[in-house]
Design a protein that fits this description.
about 260 residues; alpha+beta; Spore Coat Polysaccharide Biosynthesis Protein SpsA, Chain A; seven-stranded mixed sheet; two-stranded parallel ribbon; 10 helices; 9 strands; about 40% helix
Length: about 260
Amino acid sequence: MPHLAATLESVRGQSRLADEIVVVENGSNDETLKFLNSQHDIRLVVQPHPVSAAENWTTAAGLASGDFVKVLCADDHLLPGCLERQSEILVANGDCVMTAARRRVTGPNSEVLAHAIGLAGLKGAIAGKTALRRALTLGTNLFGEVSCVMFRRDALQRQLPWPNAGGYATDLEMYIKVLQHGRVFLDKEVLAQFRVTRQSWSYKSKSSQARDVIATFHRAVQRDEIDAGVAREVVGAMSAYSRQVLRRWFYLRIPS
């Protein structure tokens, strides 16, 4: 509840308004449901009982009816121009099944911890499997969290339900599925804001992040979704653990 109102306002304030805002309430125990019932421009769906993030995202993505879909968590923001720019990219690049932008990272009180991260220096329209191979070698989800990504709806819904085995890498699990079927446009603009607090999923999973990412990539390699040899997987695993160490240092900056 502390950030939900601002999250919704970041959607409503876009230069290209959303065709629909679907909000799925997943067992909050604060004033969330009361607040959402007072919002008259959203489609509200209440889960009958709390479910995993993957199941919740499956519900939300399955209800989408527009040409393009963005999944947004309750404490993240869209930066000005995000929907307009990302939808225009997908219109102009018909063979791209998704687009990803860089993001700003903030702390619990919206203090900026990182101004522009993501994409590992890649840009433009790239074959999906090429981008995935690069991500595996780097040992990271270079596309960013779901707030950074916009999907082509038909490409996303064909892959539902959202894979539920990824833990911290739940978003990456779906990117791998979607990117089997087209290119991705990597946009150097900063279009989303991702919040990290000591209560957030990212912070709580700080000890398992590398393991989750490595396991996700390994399953994809075993399914022939990523063309990579043993050497590339080993390099990726080393990189994943190195990044986890750097992230833990980064998390020390987050106020308690």
